[in-house]
Amino acid sequence: MKPKILMIQGTSSGAGKSLMVTALCRILSNKGYKVAPFKSQNMSSYIFKIGNSDKIIAQAQAIQALGARARPDVRMNPILLKPIGNYESEVYLCGEFFSKMTSREYYTNFVLEKGFKLALDAFKSLKKENDIILLEGAGSPAEINIMKYDIANMLLAKKVKAPVILVADIERGGCFASILGTLLLLKPKHRELIKGILINKFRGDKQILAPAIKRIESKTKKPILGVIPKLNHNIPEEDTLDGHKKTNGTNHTKKPEVINTEIDKVSKLIESTINIEYILRYILK
Known about the structure:
By secondary structure, this protein is α/β, with parallel strands linked by helices. Helices cover 38% and strands 23% of the residues.
């Protein structure tokens, strides 16, 4: 079977990309596919140490690997940016410390010259060993100030020909404007990669959304593939919107078996609210 690729992007940080990839890893693993997560570039203070080595990846990709029933692998997160303050980060490549860089140094001197090739090499290597690779984007693909450097979103999706599902957070408000705004700001060649939209973190009666969904589908020509309720769960989350939380920069404190149980629960709930058959038949074709 030729390996299949799917990318999950979001209209913003905190939209639910990481959890969606974790759930899809488990859903597709349950269907008999050999699955691996992949995030080319992650900025996070929550890290995971690989086995007995000193190599690290972002905690989110380690949890996604658990969702996929796979061993965490440095190729799943080839570039890790660990913030250290004053717009500076420690840059880890394939799990090993490489250098300290400011954001300007990273974007102007590193990411396109060296980082993108390293990420693509890691992706190609994983692709040889799996049936499906689930890519996670970072932040929003429509950050026009860094779009030409953004190897975590559309530059990567276009390069590897990955169909994209866009996740929008309705809990914070402005969900439909965020969907339309994201698509408007994307280049046409990138806009066409988006094959569907998921509305995440909804509270209330889904029937209320029917007129809005109909209008969004009419304006974007993209199907709404599901409305996912706000889920209470104990799966550790990314720290992008949780700067107030304390972390010692090491592995998640919850036991893998506890997280595994939560992944099972969340993935079943998500599978029941999204059009997984459409995703399998028309997007992962």
